[in-house]
């Protein structure tokens, strides 16, 4: 299959269930040998998942559709198989079958990788890369967080007594799994589609949020976060396939602003590795405005720039907002000193109107893995021993900066967000081998920032945003869909008309949330339990009874090109949502998870 066809498939979206953690697999097209002859050139490889508690004999299920078992997949209560493409629908209607999706392996031909350096095949926002150098040079080295701490001098700051204690970092992402090595974490609201599945609220079926949490405050299992004494507030918006909508992220930011001091919390930092390819000015964009509101309420908002290299016309939204800290990714180039560091080839450049503020290590970072998650299943080559995983992207760089800010704020709690940004930019180390348009003021140096007093010019004076622009424009090309119907236009998740003027006023005044209601719609429980935002999430008619298409969201499959690939920083959270071009950790493959091919 050519790349053009793959890209077209990605735009159409695929049917992905968000029923359970670890049950999601790639929705990627592959062909294989003909079943009758023992090779599969005319058939399609599929992943079949059975309903929870249902067991089945694969051979019996496949016989009527002329299929053949490839291998059993007990982790997802299913199996892979080869069947004729036209038989997929017939297989799906079998009693006990939860879902049938097509599968694929993503491999860059060795010859291509060897002759052209960083090359990749982009599929649904993911990039499969080989970081070997032409002529068979050394592969890119894994980068553990202890080494990152040394490179940015965070270890010196910790040696002097600061470890982030007393600082809460709101991680608005795909959730946090309670895996070995996870640091201190409490749950905020689960605003993701997974919140409708009992037993899977707050968890990370995608794998992105857990990886970032380990970088921020990991405390064990071979991972020592940048700020191991800080606490992560898990505000989940991305489902197990990465899917999310801009409205969910906006609601999450609003929740953090209004609840930042509740029940002993002290949320001083937001880590947001999500973004979209919005088509409007950040002065009007609702997502960019929400981030600015948080900034103006005393929260340092750290945002992934995106994994689009020089190819995109701008940074991701909301990194486009000039107030927040827009983070690019640096590449240590296989050494453990900073003298030869360069900007990673996938790191977004932006444009003359808005560049990144600084960069941080973001290539092949080793952090915590969520076993059985979407990423874990799709990219087993990224796995490390003892439950760890390699990941690259401006998402990972964002987590490094968020942890660094926690260190600064513990040591100097009086710093304002503007002052934090000023000292970080003024003390960053210039990377002489990288274009200034790609690196901002350089690579973060936490020790130098800790020792620098803010200047009299630290206060930012950009024209304030209004947030009254188009919700659909804020989505850009990134849409979730249900039953083949995309969420688009000036409507929210519940099919209600979006009133940007009314919302922007409520957001600024801190009244958009009231108990479990956001803009008058029930999204979550009415009370804070101390460990999680409890109660009925997305309850009654608010969630499972209504949708923009008139269908019930409950029991439907979700796909979205939202948290992921170029998301994890790509074009958005950087998935095409948290999945395609939206979650900014752009790839977990080859010798590392890496960014988009520039």
Got a strand count? Answer: 31
The helix tally amounts to 17
Strand content: 15-25%
Rg over C-alpha atoms, rounded to the nearest angstrom: 22 Å
Largest sheet: 8 strands, mixed
In terms of structural class, how would the helical and strand content be classed?
Answer: alpha/beta
Low-confidence stretches: 1-41, 104-140, 525-598
List the helices and strands and how they pair.
Blueprint: H1 3-12, E1 31-32, E2 43-50, H2 58-62, E3 68-73, E4 78-83, H3 88-92, E5 97-102, H4 110-116, E6 120-123, E7 126-129, E8 143-144, H5 145-151, H6 154-159, E9 168-173, E10 185-190, H7 208-217, E11 219-220, E12 223-224, E13 231-236, H8 246-259, E14 267-272, H9 286-296, E15 300-304, E16 325-331, E17 342-343, E18 358-361, E19 365-368, H10 374-378, E20 383-384, E21 388-391, H11 394-411, H12 417-427, H13 436-439, H14 446-451, H15 471-475, E22 480-482, E23 485-486, H16 500-509, E24 513-514, E25 517-518, E26 521-522, E27 527-528, E28 533-534, H17 540-543, E29 558-560, E30 563-564, E31 577-578
Parallel strand pairs: 8-19, 9-13, 9-14, 10-13, 14-15, 15-16, 16-18, 30-31
Antiparallel strand pairs: 1-2, 2-4, 2-5, 3-4, 6-7, 11-12, 16-17, 19-21, 20-21, 22-23, 22-29, 24-25, 25-26, 27-28
Helix pairs in contact: 7-11, 8-9, 9-16
């Amino acid at each position: 299959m050519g790349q053009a066809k793959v890209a077209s498939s990605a735009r159409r979206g695929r049917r992905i269930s968000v029923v359970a953690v670890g049950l999601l697999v790639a929705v990627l097209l592959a062909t294989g040998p003909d079943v009758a002859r023992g090779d599969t050139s005319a058939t399609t490889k599929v992943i079949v998942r059975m309903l929870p508690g249902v067991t089945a004999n694969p051979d019996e299920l496949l016989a009527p559709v002329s299929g053949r078992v490839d291998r059993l997949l007990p982790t997802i209560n299913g199996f892979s198989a080869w069947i004729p493409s036209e038989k997929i629908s017939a297989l799906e209607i079998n009693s006990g079958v939860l879902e049938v999706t097509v599968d694929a392996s993503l491999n860059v031909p060795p010859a291509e990788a060897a002759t052209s350096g960083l090359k990749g095949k982009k599929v649904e926002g993911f990039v499969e890369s080989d970081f070997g150098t032409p002529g068979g040079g050394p592969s890119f080295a894994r980068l553990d967080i202890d080494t990152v701490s040394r490179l940015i001098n965070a270890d010196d700051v910790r040696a002097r007594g600061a470890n982030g204690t007393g600082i809460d970092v709101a991680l608005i992402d795909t959730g946090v799994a309670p895996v070995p090595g996870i640091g201190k974490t409490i749950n905020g609201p689960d605003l993701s589609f997974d919140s409708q599945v009992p037993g899977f609220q707050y968890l990370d079926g995608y794998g992105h949020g857990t990886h970032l949490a380990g970088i921020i405050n990991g405390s064990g299992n071979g991972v020592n976060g940048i700020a191991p004494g800080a606490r992560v507030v898990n505000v989940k918006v991305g489902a197990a396939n990465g899917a999310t909508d801009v409205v969910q992220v906006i609601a999450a930011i609003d929740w953090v602003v209004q609840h930042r001091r509740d029940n002993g919390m002290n949320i001083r930092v937001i880590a947001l590795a999500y973004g979209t390819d919005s088509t409007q000015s950040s002065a009007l964009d609702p997502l960019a405005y929400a981030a600015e509101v948080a900034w103006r309420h005393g929260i340092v908002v750290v945002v992934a720039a995106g994994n689009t290299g020089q190819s995109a016309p701008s940074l991701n939204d909301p990194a486009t907002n000039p107030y927040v800290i827009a983070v690019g990714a640096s590449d240590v180039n296989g050494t453990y000193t900073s003298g030869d560091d360069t900007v990673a080839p996938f790191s977004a450049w932006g444009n003359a109107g808005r560049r990144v503020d600084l960069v941080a290590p973001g290539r092949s970072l080793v952090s915590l893995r969520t076993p059985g998650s979407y990423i874990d299943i799709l990219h087993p080559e990224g796995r490390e021993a003892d439950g760890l995983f390699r990941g690259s992207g401006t998402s990972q760089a964002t987590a490094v900066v968020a942890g660094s800010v926690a260190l600064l704020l513990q040591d100097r709690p009086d710093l304002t967000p503007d002052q934090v940004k000023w000292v970080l930019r003024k003390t960053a180390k210039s990377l002489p081998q990288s274009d200034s348009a790609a690196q901002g003021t350089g690579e973060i140096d936490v020790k130098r920032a800790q020792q620098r007093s803010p200047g009299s010019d630290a206060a930012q004076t950009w024209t304030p945003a209004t947030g009254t622009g188009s919700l659909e424009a804020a989505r850009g090309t990134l849409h979730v869909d249900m039953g083949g119907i995309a969420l688009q236009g000036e409507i929210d998740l519940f099919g209600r008309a979006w009133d940007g003027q009314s919302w922007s006023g409520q957001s600024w005044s801190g009244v958009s949330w009231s108990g479990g209601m956001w803009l008058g719609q029930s999204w979550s429980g009415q009370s804070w339990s101390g460990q999680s935002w409890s109660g009925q999430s997305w309850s009654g008619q608010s969630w499972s009874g209504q949708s923009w298409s008139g269908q019930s969201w409950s029991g439907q499959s979700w796909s979205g090109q939202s948290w992921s690939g170029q998301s994890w920083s790509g074009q958005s959270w950087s998935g095409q949502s948290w999945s395609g071009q939206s979650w900014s950790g752009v790839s977990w493959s080859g010798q590392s998870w890496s960014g988009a091919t520039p």
